[in-house]
Amino acid sequence: MSMEDHKLKVFCTVAETKSFSKTSEIIHLTQPAVSLQIQALEEVYESKLFDRSSGTISLTPSGEILYRYAKEILGLYAKAEKDIGKITGLIKGSIKIGTGTTVGNYILPSVIVDFKKTHPKIKIHVVIGNTKRMVELLNSGVIDFGILCDTKPSAKLVVEPLLTDELFIIAPPFHLWAKKKVISIVDVAKEPCVLREEGSATREIFERYFSDHGFSVNDIPVALILGSIGSVKEAVERGMGVSIASKWAIRKEIKNGTLKMLVPKEGRMQRKFSLVMQKNSVLTHAVDEFVSYLRAYPYENLSLDCKP
After folding, report:
1. What residues contact residue 98 under an 8 Å CB cut-off, 6+ apart?
2. What distances in angstroms separate CA 205 from CA 39, 95, 196, one per listed residue?
3. Labelling 48: which of 77, 103, 161, 248 has CA 20 to 30 A away?
């Protein structure tokens, strides 16, 4: 991408986020650097592009015109790269994917390793965070697509189901439940629980499941609240309490016998991970290839060794 493209990308991101600070976070530039890029464009067009007078940032009439063309120009660059890639047969470039901890830590690494065997020149960068943050990054074009759970299609977003996840109750092997395969939510509500932080998708599913079965979240005796599934698993292994976790995240521990998984008696806890893309984005050849690969991947092979 040339310097001019980069300025246009910065400009579009400010226009979409209506914030210099968010843009600096997204594009990894300091705020003064973002301001300088916008100033440079304003000098080229001898016109103010943003109106900051009312305390919020909005596009001026000149800004509106530039935004329309900038989106077209950036789209044309992507199309050119794609068409040249088709002729040369060389698929290179980089892909940025946004996702949560379960997919990012426990599913994508295996998929990417397999993909790179046949596409060594493609660079793949995975950004991990909660769904709300990933949708922001997608809308401002920082990531090419997301693999997210429980995302609704919207005027801007296309959502395509990719794979199913199931969550199980986990306990240490020395727990009273270790010989059981099924446990009632009534029993879980009496045990100290190790939970993820608020805003985590796993935590939301746990709370929704509880309230669907007539329990208030306040009924759950919370032993610990932790910021990652790795730390939750470790706390459960050490006997700090029980928890829930995705089948993808506990494959190794179940295989090695350091955790026991139980099915909730009241019904399965499931969720779908979906491909989430901007409605009219032009995907590069590299992104196209990887998305096709994701659609066809035999995910069940990854969880064959993980049965309750």
Report:
1. 126, 127, 128, 129, 133, 134, 137, 138, 143, 145, 146, 147, 148
2. 46, 30, 11
3. 77
Q: Average pLDDT for residues 171-191, to the nearest whole number? A: 92
DSSP 131-173: HHHHHHHHHTTSSSEEEEES----SSEEEEEEEEEEEEEEE-T
Distance between CA atoms of residues 221 and 241, nearest Å: 10
Other Cβ atoms less than 10 A from the Cβ of 147: the count is 24
Mean pLDDT value of segment 271-287: 86
* Average pLDDT along the chain: 88
**What counts of helices (H) and strands (E) characterise the chain?**
12, 12
Question: What CATH fold (topology level) applies to the domain 1-90?
Answer: Arc Repressor Mutant, subunit A (1.10.10)
Q: Are 267 and 75 in contact (CB under 8 A)?
A: no
Neighbours of 252 (CB within 10 A): 13
Over 90: is that where the pLDDT of 41 sits? yes
Residues of the chain with CATH 3.40.190.10: 165-270
